[in-house]
Input
Amino acid sequence: MTFHLKKTAFYLQLLALTIFMTSPGHVIAANGVPESFADLVSDMGPTVVNVYSTKVLTSSRGRGFNPFHEEQEIPEFFKKFFDMPTPDQPQPKREQKAQSLGSGVIISADGYIVTNNHVIENAEEIKIRLTNHEEYDAEVIGRDPKTDVGLIKIKPKKDLPHITFGDSDTLRVGDWVVAIGNPFGFENTVTAGIVSGKGRSIGGGPYENFIQTDASINMGNSGGPLFNLKGMLVGINTAIFSRGGGNIGLGFAIPVNMVKNVVDQLKEHGKVTRGWLGVMIQHVTADLAEKFGLDRPIGALVGEVMKDSPADKAGVKQGDVITKFMGKEINQMSLLPSLVAQTDVGTEAELTIIRKGKEKKLTVKIGKLQEDDVDLASAGDESISNKLGLTVQEVTPEIAQSLGIKDEKGLLVSNVDPDSPAARSGIKRGEMILEINQEPVETVKEFKAIMEKVKSKDSILFLTKKDDHTRYVVIKNN
Output
């Protein structure tokens, strides 16, 4: 008798649970999927804007040429949202007004808008279109190429709807996220997916700590928001991983905690000041973990400590494995540079390290990274370097680390005008310049001094290096 009563009670409970899960408003309990994102989209959709940036250029390239990026030395299957295939054969020169289309998100009622740096870089004119179809001219407040964050502002007729910042550190792999943007010009397109990874690095910069998502993201989503289910901003969509330039389920967003730090500095100073530790680090593999007394591959292995750097003064040594920074676990090497960069100069930060199998804590006073004080070699409108279409910069420890440059003396080619003597000679972004006219060059000052000796019609001999291979290149200065 007792058995039958228990069995009957079980079936009654099962029936009640089935009714609950299938009743209206409780679909999420039945299958784990939100019933609808409509309320979120209704609230947050008006915060998303269309960004148009235009530039007049003369191009020797054919259809598909992207005026806002030169070719990048990255795998072909990885594309920035605006990168388009270029034809193999050069086309006749022509002048055109090119238009780049992207997304942005309003962060304040008075018209501050966050987008990607690569959406607005080199633009002569930037226009913003709101969801109510009002259009405004936008002013660039500041750009940060290293994190790909851009801050622009419009002067609206009235207060604008704007986002609330979330906390990207609390995101978990598997959490639902919603992307809103303008893929291929289709305004206010909404896609949803999950966080499929965190702390991703895709080889495009020194401070990468991307949120990976399978929410459908395509060209034109760049600079648009990634929301959590509370409608709070958790990321800025910036890149895709694709063989054909379209979505295959691998999208990447800048974490909003990094965005907030950059935006605050751009708003106040127009540029970004970053913290500096002064170490060269590398990934910890399973084999290295075993050798350095770790129970699993974690942290950042210190391969070199810069003399008189904050790390050196704090007692960090070669062979230390940094496992925590200010209490945050360094579960992979790429997390450390971004955390340090976001830390205020002068902060006394606690490092947790593993040294010869034993845990140790050190206190380091964060220094100022000098990258923003290093001028690019583009002296003036009439400079030889500008006529060549070539921009170079000195190699900081952070740049060297991100590009795998070790003990190299020279200058890094940071930009090449796609329709310039430098581009026609075959010099590409990411190459190192070791000599100019057989004179060694290591600083921007030396670069400018050598260039001042060059006569207006002289050809210039460069010795460059890329991927451990050196070559001589002649640039015809005409």
